[in-house]
Hints:
With 99 residues, the protein is mostly helical. It has one domain (2-97): Methane Monooxygenase Hydroxylase, Chain G, domain 1 (Up-down Bundle), CATH 1.20.58. The chain is 92% helix and 0% strand. The protein has helices at residues 2-46, 52-97. Helix 1 runs antiparallel to helix 2. The chain starts with a helix and ends with a helix.
Amino acid sequence: MTKLMTLSFHCVVASYVPVQVFEHELEKRKSNIDSIQKAAKTMIENSDEDTTLLQAQLIDLTTKCDKVSSLSANKRDRLADAYAEVSFALFCGACSTNR
Length: 99
């Protein structure tokens, strides 16, 4: 059981690092997305032409960005929960072997 838990612990930790890197990259790109959204809103407000397509693209961009952020946060939270469970199980296993 201890080897399996140790392996599980390493798998959880190994999975967590790429999620952190991905979220860091998302955060770095957030200012770019914000700039694009602001520019699009300005164009929509100031344009005399039909901006239906631009509005649809802006909604699509916002929806997709929100979805990616939500999925990433969900994965991070699940990995944190798994880390806590495996850590607790390893701790309990270590305590029971010390008796």
